[in-house]
Design brief:
Elements (H helix, E strand, L loop, with lengths): L12 H13 L3 H8 L3 E11 L2 E13 L5 E8 L4 H17 L6 E7 L2 H7 L7 H24 L3 E5 L5 H11 L19 H19 L9 E5 L3 H12 L3 E7 L2 E4 L6 H11 L8 E3 L1 H5 L2 E7 L8 H6 L1 E6 L8 H9 L4 E2 L1 H4 L2 H15 L5 H26 L3 H19 L4
Length: 425
């Protein structure tokens, strides 16, 4: 049967790389489409009460693939959300859970909340975090009512993504009253996991360190680093890489960036951001996000939005290694240019998978009510991430392909096998 999706869906990096892998593995067109296409996509609208008025927020739920376990993926609240981005992110989750070899599939939720527009409509300032939290709460309450059944049956187990965090996950738990229905829950909420909030950033730092030592033959303390984004992922990546001894010369968030050739004191920056809500205003040279991406550094770590490194950026970056802490920060065209320039990339499906490994631990702890210590959780993450990086490096070497393609190939093999075993192919 022919696919109905790719006729409309733009050819993204994950589609191109999955198809590449399927070709190398000798799969048929029908099998390829079954792996590539989402199993289900739902469009929805959330009518929310904002200061006595009804405001409708649209959203997409993509249930991409459940061959290896429940659909798993975060809830994104952002103005840039669209159907193709959500499908792409869900497909990336399928690949990520497979390359990391955990028993989840891939899914994603995108809810379009155009913050500047909403704030302007109600005459609020751009830093009115309290008002934004009230909106986010209302949106997630409606969303939980709509899909509570999927969560309670563990068909789709959501988690935080851009614009959501432990508070929003607690709202889902309040609704389902089932600790295993959602991960990324706040400390003290039943089934919460010590180490969950640090997990993604810490995993990125470990994978980077391992690559620097084993592939580049250097020590992380010899490296200069720029990090884009200082939210959950970026702030933890910066903190841990800084503690490992690397020199962080550039950091940014959506409001602007910082540069200091002598190295930014990340410990002090964390205090500054806790008070001000942004990196802007910290003692360092001010730079734009465009400049941050083009800094001459050993390692560039995009840890914010998607598609920030396109053709222009890929031609102009001056880094020796890119680590994808964000999901899909490099476009397909951008990736081909980086490959032609010989700039290696550690892919998102390996680099930022610490979060989903922690989610697996949280899910398992929620099902069994067994306690976990932070050390137990970090041990599992380290073990899983090292295995997936080493596994992908071996495939890259054997097949003479780049690390991103190699990671996807490992994942596709596993998804294919499970789909076969479940008669989904
Ligand atoms: P977050 O909302 O906590 O933080 C996002 C950060 O990026 C903020 O500092 C924000 O100011 C900045 N930002 C947003 N748009 C930007 C832009 N255009 N330019 C520069 N900075 C910008 O989100 P997060 O949870 O840290 O997620 C960041 C990325 O990591 C996303 O791509 C997400 O999908 C991915 N990710 C998150 C997790 C997780 O556990 N939170 C796991 C895996 C992947």
């Amino acid at each position: 049967m022919q696919s109905i999706v790719p006729f409309q869906e733009p050819v993204t990096k994950s589609i191109a790389y999955v198809k590449d892998s399927c070709r190398r593995l000798g799969l048929t067109e029908e099998e390829t489409n079954a792996i590539c296409d989402p199993q289900e996509v739902r469009l929805f609208k959330l009518p929310c009460n904002v200061l006595g008025e009804t405001v409708i927020f649209p959203g997409i739920l993509c249930l991409h693939n459940n061959a290896r376990g429940p659909y798993k993926g975060g809830i994104r609240l952002d103005g840039s959300v669209d159907i193709y981005e959500t499908i792409e992110l869900a497909r990336v989750m399928t690949l990520k859970t497979a390359v990391t070899d955990i028993e989840f599939g891939g899914g994603k939720t995108g809810i379009r909340v155009d913050w500047p527009q909403v704030l302007a409509k109600y005459g609020k300032k751009s830093d009115d975090w309290a008002f934004m939290r009230v909106i986010a709460r209302s949106v997630i309450e409606k969303y939980a009512q709509l899909y509570g059944d999927l969560f309670s049956k563990h068909i789709y187990v959501p988690a935080p993504d851009m614009g959501t965090g432990p508070t929003e996950m607690a709202i889902i738990y309040n609704y389902t009253q089932d600790p295993a229905s959602v991960t990324g829950k706040a400390e003290g909420v039943a089934g919460w996991l010590p180490g969950r909030k640090e997990a993604t950033g810490l995993g990125v730092a470990w994978v980077t360190k391992l690559y620097v030592e084993e592939v580049l033959g250097k020590d992380i303390s010899q490296m200069t680093v720029a990090v884009q984004g200082f939210g959950n992922v970026g702030s933890h990546v910066a903190k841990y890489i800084y503690e490992m001894g690397a020199k962080i010369v550039g950091i940014s968030d959506v409001f602007g960036g910082l540069y200091d050739a002598k190295g930014i004191r990340v410990d002090q920056l964390l205090d500054h951001v806790a008070k001000k809500g942004t990196v802007v205003g910290f003692e360092a040279e001010s730079i734009s996000n465009d400049q941050l991406l083009r800094l001459p550094v050993d390692i560039l770590i995009p840890a914010a939005a998607g598609h920030v490194i396109g053709v222009d950026e890929a031609k102009e970056v001056q880094t020796k290694l890119i680590v994808e802490a964000a999901n899909v920060p490099i476009t397909l065209d951008g990736m081909e240019i980086l490959n032609s320039r010989g700039i290696p990339v550690i892919p998102d499906i390996i680099a930022n998978s610490g979060g989903v490994v922690a989610s697996m631990e949280e899910y398992s702890r929620s099902l069994t009510a067994m306690l976990r210590t932070k050390e137990d959780v970090f041990d599992v993450i380290r073990h899983k991430l090292e295995n997936s990086l080493r596994g992908a490096l071996a495939v890259a070497e054997e097949q003479k392909i780049d690390l991103c393609r190699a990671g996807v190939e490992l994942a596709v093999q596993r998804v294919y096998q499970s789909m076969k075993n479940r008669n989904q192919i």
